[in-house]
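Homework help board

Subject: predicted structure for assignment chain

Our instructor gave us this sequence and asked us to write out the predicted structure in C-alpha cell form, then describe one feature. I got the C-alpha cells but I'm not sure how to describe them. Can anyone check?
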Amino acid sequence: MEFTDFANKLRSILSDGGNTIIFTKSLFEILMNDEGIEELNKKKDSTIKAYFNGGTSLKKFSSVVLAHLNDDDEFERYINEFGDTTLQLLVDEFSNEIPDIGISNAGRKLYELFLEILKNASNKKSTQKSAQNSNKKLTNPSIKEEIVHLPKEQESKDIPYSDEDQLLLAEFTSDYDAIMSTIIGENFASAFLEMKITEKIKELYQLKWQINANKFDNPTLKGYIFNLLGELNKISDIFFSSTSTSSNFKKVKSTIRNLYVKLHPELYTVTFPYEAFIDDWNDGEIY
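My C-alpha cell output:
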C-alpha cells in the first residue's frame, strides 16, 4: 500500500473535509519527536500536498520520519480516541490490507501499517534511477519541464453541485488526483515513466469513466470532467512526440492545473478571480 492510499482512506473517515495539507502534516506530527517535527516544518505546503496526492515520492522523507519516531504510542492513542462507530468504519475500510483488524486493535494495526508503508518507501529505488532503467525512452528529451503552481487552498462550503454530483465527483477525484498532481508537479518526466501513467489513464477511462462521466448532472461540472479526460489523452502524444515543444507541454500542464482547481470546489473557492493572481492561469483555460 502506498502512503497516498493510506492517507486518503484515513482522511475520508477522520477528516471533516478540511485542508489536506494540515491533515497530512498531522499524521506525520503524531509519529515524530520534536526534532522530526522541525524537519517536517521545513517542507513546503506544495510538497506536503504532493505526498498526500502521490505526486511526490516519499522515499527521502520516509527515512527522516523513521529516524525521528517518538516513543509515546501517540498515533495508536489518536486512533483509539475515536468512538466505536468510527473505529468500525476504519476496520471496514482497511480490512483488505489488514485482515485481522478489529475495533479493539485498530490503533495498533494502523500504526503498524503506517510504519510498513514508510519502511517500504524508504527502501524503494529512486524514481530517477528507475526511469533511466526503463525500456521506454523519450523521443523528445529536449522538452523542459515548465513549473506550474497551484493556488493556495481556500476551504469553501459553498459547493454549487447536488449531493449526487458531489459523491460522484469525490469518486472521480479519488481516481485521478494522483495523476493530476504528478503531471502538475516538478518531476513529471521521471514519474511519468515510473508510474506508468498512460496505462493507468487508459484503464480508468476504458473500464470506468468512459461511461460514468455521463452520469454527472451539472453541465458545467460535466464539462470539466470531459475536458480533463480529453487533456489526459494528449499527455502521451505530447511527451513522446519528436515534434512537441516545451510550450505544448506547459499548456497541457496549465490546463490540468486549472481543472484540478475546478474539480475541488471544497478546497478552492469557485468564484475566486485566479487569473488576477496567477500569471499563467489564462494559458490553462479552455475556450
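Reply (TA_rk): Your C-alpha cells look well-formed. For the description, you could write something like this. The CA atoms of residues 150 and 174 lie 18 Å apart. That's the kind of observation they're looking for.
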